[in-house]
Amino acid sequence: MDKAELIQKAKLSEQAERYDDMAAAMKALTEQGGELSNEERNLLSVAYKNVVSARRSSWHVVSCIEQKTEVNEKKQQMAKEAFEISKTEMQPTHPIRLGLALNFSVFYYEIFNFPEKACSLAKAAFDEAIAELDTLNEESYKDSTLIMQLLRGNLTLWTSENQGEEADNVEGDVYDGGDSGRGDTAEMGETVRKA
Predict the structure, then answer these.
(1) What is the DSSP string of 17-74?
(2) What is the pLDDT of residues 22-61, one digit of tens each?
């Protein structure tokens, strides 16, 4: 291709936002030798600026995904450690242990998109607490039973979602962290978690 054809190709590539093609045309032009005009230098600059910008943007997206994955793995490890400690140090009906189970199951469901693991964890925590419900003291009864209701509500919601059915009129309480045992209504179909 001669110089005029390469310049024309570069201009058309720019209009079509095909900056890799534009850069290739300008590279071919520079390889022909000779000094570049002002217009040719501008075309070369625009081509490489846009090529580099697109690569930089792609790299940024990949970098953010990697960082998010790394952070999620650290969060998972911390949550797992806290939950394991609660299992060895607390009764299955203890509100903190139940709250950790609730939060950890929501973490598996929403962050890692592991619905089976989330359901398994929530069901195990709920079943263990039900088995020892008679050991609950009056002080933690309200909080524990509220969190158990939240676990059961999430299980119901998640199971129906996993079976491809729509949950009709599923509402849950959001644990407000207080001793009153009072919760606020969540949006229909919204996963509830301990605050």
Answers:
(1) T-HHHHHHHHHHHHHT-SPPPHHHHHHHHHHHHHHHHHHHHHHHHHHHHHHHHHHHHH
(2) 999 999 999 998 888 999 999 999 999 999 998 898 888 8
